[in-house]
Fold:
Amino acid sequence: MSLSALTAQLIDFREQRDWAQFHSLRNLIVSLNLEAAELLELTQWKSDAEVDALPASAASREALRDECADVLLYLLLVAERAGIDLEEAAQVKLRKNAVRYPVASSYGSSRKHHQPAPDERGEAAAAGFRGPRPRG
Structure:
C-alpha cells in the first residue's frame, strides 16, 4: 500500500469519528512526539543488547510494531495537514543528505556534517575549535 493510499484510509477513519476538529497542526505534532516518546520508552533502562533483543519476543515485537505504527500514522496526518508529499520529501531529503554526507568523508563516521573532522592526533582540525565548555 502506498503512503497516499494509507493516508486516505486514515483520513476516512478520522472522518468517521469526527476527529478532524482535534487535529490542528500543533496538536498533531505534539501527538507525533508523544507517540515517539512511547516508542523510546520501550528502550528505557535497557542495555543495547536488551534493546536489540526486543524483536525476538512476540510481545515486545508487537509493542514495537504498535508504537512504530502510531508514529507513522501521526506523521501521515501532520504531512496531510501541512500539504507535504512525504514520498517526495523523503526523496529530496535523501538527495540533500547525499550532498551533506559524501561517501568519501562519511563512510564509517558518525560525525555530523557541521562537525570538524579530527586530524591524525584525534584533535579537531577546525581553526578556533575549543571543545566543550567546562561545567561550572
In short: Confidence is low (pLDDT under 50) at residues 124-129.
